[in-house]
């Protein structure tokens, strides 16, 4: 009996917390946002928006199990009855999928001015901000150091490299970008050479970074925040931007993206929230949090240990083509990742 009582009490507490989170006083402006960026970093930004504007934020976050795709799939399922006003995507390919499916609405925020055109949809269906760079984490003191993504195929590093499973996350996006940039034949040949060079597959970028930090492997491609966080922890690793030479393809950049949802319940509040997300102040906050995001606005300092976006040679990325290619190469990546 006591067990049933405590179970019922727990259910009531959870229900009360949920109702409190989604409750707004009568007449108070509200906005609903679906978020695939880490809750620990995005929630403080949304709380600051509430305090500064008086607009009540209802936030729905991806769980670790549905990272990046959960809220996006929910938006797709709700297309004919939108519940969200804004989507905060942790990479622009998710935002581009929504544009292609007619779920995004065009909105050019005044705060988009100054963000490079490469990192925003030309018609305003999504706008990038606060980016990660795809960089090498390298064991400190390793000589020579990898200089290009093609270093994965160098016999010198056979069996000494690790990469996150290409079926998930930013690794998938980067490989899709290579297929777009190089064409299918060259990209498939590159991936086969990587496999033949005895690369280690890890579950995630974080695991790859830990392998290198422990000295089990020499280098890995990861997100820039993975390296910054481990350097701050005193781990013996270094950060190297790949492909920075005059004839190289450049470093792949993964910005967050803000999307206004078509037919949303509170479009004006949604626009106000997007303006806030795209502001220099929000980029500054994300830069100096543990998220260590690289601002896309000029004049906003980068996190300690990272270069400003204008100093990095970046890959020319067509996110429209990357979004389509990402789906097309899934069968190939599944077979490639099989042991």
From TrEMBL:
Tagged with keyword tRNA processing: no
Keywords: Periplasm, Signal
Record has Cell inner membrane as a keyword: no
InterPro entries: Ferric-bd, SBP
PANTHER family: SLL0237 PROTEIN (PTHR30006:SF24), THIAMINE-BINDING PERIPLASMIC PROTEIN-RELATED (PTHR30006)
Protein name, as recorded: Extracellular solute-binding protein
Organism this protein belongs to: Methylocapsa polymorpha
């Amino acid at each position: 009996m006591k067990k049933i009582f405590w179970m019922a009490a727990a259910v009531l507490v959870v229900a009360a917390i949920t109702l409190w989170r989604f409750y707004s006083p009568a007449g108070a402006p509200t906005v609903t946002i679906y978020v695939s960026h880490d809750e620990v970093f995005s929630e403080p930004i949304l709380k600051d928006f509430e305090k500064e504007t008086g607009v009540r934020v209802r936030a729905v976050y991806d769980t670790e199990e549905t990272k990046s795709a959960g809220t996006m799939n929910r938006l797709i399922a709700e297309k004919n009855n939108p519940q969200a006003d804004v989507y905060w995507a942790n990479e622009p390919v998710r935002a581009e999928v929504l544009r292609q499916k007619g779920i995004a609405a065009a909105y050019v925020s005044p705060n988009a001015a100054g963000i490079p055109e490469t990192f925003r949809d030309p018609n305003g269906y999504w706008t990038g901000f606060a980016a990660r760079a795809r960089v090498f984490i390298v064991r400190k003191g390793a000589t020579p150091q990898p200089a290009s993504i093609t270093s994965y195929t160098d016999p010198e590093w056979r069996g000494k490299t690790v990469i996150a499973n290409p079926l998930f996350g930013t690794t998938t996006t980067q490989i899709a970008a290579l297929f777009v940039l190089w064409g299918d034949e060259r990209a498939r040949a590159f991936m086969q050479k990587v496999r033949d060079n005895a690369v280690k597959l890890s579950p995630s970028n974080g695991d790859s970074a830990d392998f290198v930090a422990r000295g089990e492997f020499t280098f890995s491609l990861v997100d820039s925040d993975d390296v910054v966080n481990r350097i701050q922890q005193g781990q013996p690793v270094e950060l190297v931007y790949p492909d920075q030479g005059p004839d190289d393809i450049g470093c792949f950049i993964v910005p967050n993206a803000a999307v206004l949802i078509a037919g949303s319940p509170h479009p004006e509040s949604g626009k106000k929230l997007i303006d806030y997300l795209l502001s220099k102040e929000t980029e500054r906050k994300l830069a100096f949090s543990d998220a260590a995001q690289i601002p896309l606005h000029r004049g906003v300092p980068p996190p300690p240990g990272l270069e400003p976006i204008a100093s990095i040679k970046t890959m020319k990325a067509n996110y429209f083509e990357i979004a389509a290619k990402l789906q097309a190469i899934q069968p190939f990546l599944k077979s490639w990742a099989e042991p």
